[in-house]
């Protein structure tokens, strides 16, 4: 049975609403003001909160703000009850993260419909999605059902890129968020003396290009495909609608991209503290995760591992002598995956 917390200071209104909700089949807990409501949320852990705006002790905006700061309560669907004379404050509540508004007086069917709608949407977006291609597409399809996108056409577009083809350049305005269906992409900048240095490498199943959208800036690096690559593009407008129009959508998306961010941090830590041998081993394991061979310029691999071309060449020679890999021109062929993994233990 779903649990609903009703926070309302008017006794008659509180009793009438709670009786209606209980008759509909929900478990109800009531609170006579905002302070009590916040405390009861911690112990009752409702599936949905219905809250009056104007109350003594702590008003509805204060309740929503406090609950939004705690991970365990931040995504509980929140419906405000308010008088029509307070309509001008609607934007304030929505900006704080309210999911819906009901203006007093309202019909019983309006309240029940609002409750059922919000609970259904919340259940849809509580699903866990993997960071792989299937998980991402399932997430986008579910998000379309939840978020109001009547005026938005298809959300994603598929594009193919040849090896070493530009995806975007520094200084360009942002139009898309990118998801890698197949292949890999590097992002890089040029130093003052004209040398290229790689900032990140993104592989199949990862998002990239979304940071400038949140920071409202142009790209500050170049993105280029390392091999034949297939990307799904999500338009900037659709991406922002997905993220900002529903808190649960935003939370699910952040869970998916957190793997990308975590991987990037791990690369930086590895580059800072590991030996050349270990860095090369880690990067080869990553690049050869689903393949037995890759084609990559030695200069690019050196940049990816944060070492010089000479040091990389010596390490690859060592790996060849140990019969871990073999090379054919630009091609690196995996011979013994277990031996390559054991190189992680050598500092």
Automatic annotation (TrEMBL):
GO terms for molecular function: DNA binding. The keyword Repeat does not apply. Residues 136-260 form the Cyclic nucleotide-binding domain. Keywords: DNA-binding, Phosphoprotein, Transcription, Transcription regulation, Two-component regulatory system. It comes from Wenyingzhuangia heitensis. Residues 3-119 form the Response regulatory domain. The modification 4-aspartylphosphate is found at residue 52. Residues 274-338 form the HTH crp-type domain. This is DNA-binding response OmpR family regulator/RNA-binding protein YhbY.
